[in-house]
Design brief:
It is a single chain. By secondary structure, the protein is an alpha+beta fold. It is 59% helix and 11% strand. It has a 4-stranded antiparallel β-sheet. It is elongated. Pfam families: GNVR, Wzz.
Length: 249
């Protein structure tokens, strides 16, 4: 016979283990808060924009073919920007002790939609260094692309600037704690049902009927040991008092 779980049983299981579920959720949120505020290093982001657009001579107009060529070159430029040919001079000019691979991991390059604008985003522990890296990468690329591609069609559209009160882009404590809360609740509910599934003891009349298939014709009520002790003391006191009264008579 196939066992089914009713909504009532689910509710009773969750209600029975509610303390465990809440405890796990609280511990998960606390762990996420501690890691976000005290363990993870805040990262700051800065970005600059470059424009891929062939310089035109006086009286010359750009054709649709020129614009299409510039857009098609962007994918190539994105690869070149993250190459050692650009990042090595950047590291040398900044005077930092960092490998090309490490700098590349901090760098994000892409195009703004289907436009001729390319963004260069850099994340770093220092907001000032993030600005310096973004601007230096753009400057070095603008200089080196002339020799690499024999074209002069890159100009800096919007350099990175250091704001007065920079805010880190990661970690996000609120988001981390919200995720931890959901995970903690899910783990608590799962553990509650696991404990209930592994518990094969019979505690109620309904469980007797369900598991043994036998009707319940009677039940023994739970006896409170404290009440028994109180009743015994009361009976002893009554007997003592009756004995004294009989002796006095």
């Amino acid at each position: 016979m196939e066992e089914t779980i009713s909504l009532k049983e689910i509710y009773q299981t969750i209600k029975k283990r509610l303390g465990l579920i809440v405890l796990l959720a609280v511990l998960a949120v606390a762990a996420a808060a501690i890691i976000s505020y005290f363990v993870l290093t805040p990262m700051y982001q800065s970005s600059t924009q470059i424009l891929v657009n062939q310089a035109k001579e006086e009286g010359q107009t750009l054709t649709q073919a020129d614009l299409r060529t510039n857009v098609e070159l962007i994918n190539t430029y994105n690869v070149i920007i993250t190459s050692p040919r650009i990042l090595d001079p950047v590291i040398e000019e900044l005077g930092i002790e960092q490998s090309v691979g490490s700098l590349r991991s901090q760098l994000t390059v892409g195009s703004e939609g289907n436009s001729q604008v390319v963004y260069i985003r850099v994340q770093d522990e220092s907001p000032a260094m993030a600005v310096n890296k973004a601007n230096t990468i753009a400057t070095v690329f603008q200089r080196e692309i002339v020799e690499l591609m024999n074209v002069d069609n890159v100009s800096i559209l919007s350099p990175a600037e250091l704001s007065a009160n920079p805010a880190p882009v990661s970690p996000n404590p609120t988001l981390n704690m919200a995720i931890a809360l959901v995970v903690g609740l899910m783990a608590g509910v799962g553990l509650a049902f696991l404990i209930e599934f592994l518990d094969n003891t019979i505690k109620t009349e309904d469980q007797v009927e369900k598991h043994l298939g036998l009707p319940v014709i009677g039940a023994i009520s739970r006896i409170d040991q404290n009440n028994v002790e109180v009743k015994k003391m009361s009976m002893n006191n009554r007997r003592t008092r009756n004995g004294r009264e009989s002796f006095g008579a």
